[in-house]
Design a protein that fits this description.
mainly alpha, 2 domains, 8 helices
């Protein structure tokens, strides 16, 4: 029995040693497999980079395109950037001016429509702050006072001439006010119409430079033409970026000026009607 137990213990020890050696072999084989996979991946990356370099394929960022711009293209981009900044600045200016003019007109009309005579209107409007519509009233009222001083205010034969003079005086002030509201509109229209053509000029120049580089290097790789072509596309984008806001702002301002003009026309009609009624009351 003792001999048999000894033999069994020797067999177990031999099996354990064999298992340990097998496990260590498997671990070593796994490490070798991982190393070989990493080496294969590195070799593939190196081969891809070598192929890209051989074919002339390179990665170009937007900032690199900007750095490669020609001096003329840089000048075009600066002009378009200034136009875009000016157009956006005009947007804030127009929004402020139009809102102020609309509020002043609304408050003025609310006060004016409370008057039943020319004298009441003059007393009420005297307390209103200065505005474009108030300047119209002052011009019309000044013409009424001149007619009264001449003794023609109560004469029916002079009514038509009086109404014409009042309307003419108010129309002059109205045009001045609308001209103030429409300041810089011509420049906005010019930006909207001409900015795309300025950008197109930069585009044509960039394409020309691309052909020059192709001719000098005898290569059509991306590394050769990326700069000029990228500059050409940037010029096109800059032209559109300057033109689109300018057109939108111009349309907004033109619509607001048209609304204001309609309100001023209505006020002129109301004032002339008030003067006509006052003349009839005094003549009767």
């Amino acid at each position: 029995m003792t001999l048999i137990n000894s033999l069994l213990m020797l067999a177990q020890q031999s099996g354990a040693a064999t298992g340990a050696s097998g496990a260590s072999g498997q671990a070593a084989s796994g490490v070798a497999t991982q190393r070989s996979a990493a080496e294969i991946e590195a070799a593939r990356d190196a081969a891809a980079k070598t192929g890209d370099a051989a074919s002339g394929r390179t990665e170009v960022s937007l900032w690199q395109l900007v750095e490669q711009l020609e001096p003329l293209e840089i000048g075009v981009m600066i002009i378009l950037a200034l136009c875009a900044i000016y157009a956006v600045a005009l947007l804030f200016e127009k929004v402020y001016v139009m809102r102020r003019a609309s509020g002043q007109t609304r408050d003025f009309l609310a006060a004016f429509r409370k008057a039943n005579s020319v004298e009441e209107a003059e007393a009420i409007i005297r307390k209103q702050p200065q505005s474009g519509i108030k300047s119209m009233f002052d011009a019309g009222m000044a013409e009424v006072r001149r007619t009264q001083d001449l003794g023609l205010y109560t004469m029916r034969d002079a009514r038509d001439h009086t109404m014409q003079r009042v309307a003419s005086a108010m129309s002059t002030r109205q045009n001045d006010h609308l001209e103030d509201l429409g300041s810089s509109m011509t420049f906005l229209a010019s930006i909207g119409a001409n900015a795309p053509f300025i950008g197109l000029f930069g585009t044509v120049w960039g394409i020309m430079m691309a052909f020059v580089r192709i001719s000098s290097t005898q290569s059509t790789s991306l590394a050769v033409v990326a700069g000029p072509i990228g500059g050409a596309l940037l010029a096109t984008a800059a032209g559109l970026a300057a033109a689109i806001p300018a057109v939108l702002i111009y349309n907004f301002a033109a619509k607001q000026i048209s609304k204001q003009a309609n309100k001023l026309d209505d006020f002129a009609s109301e004032f002339i009607s008030l003067v006509s009624r006052d003349m009839d009351r005094r003549a009767g």
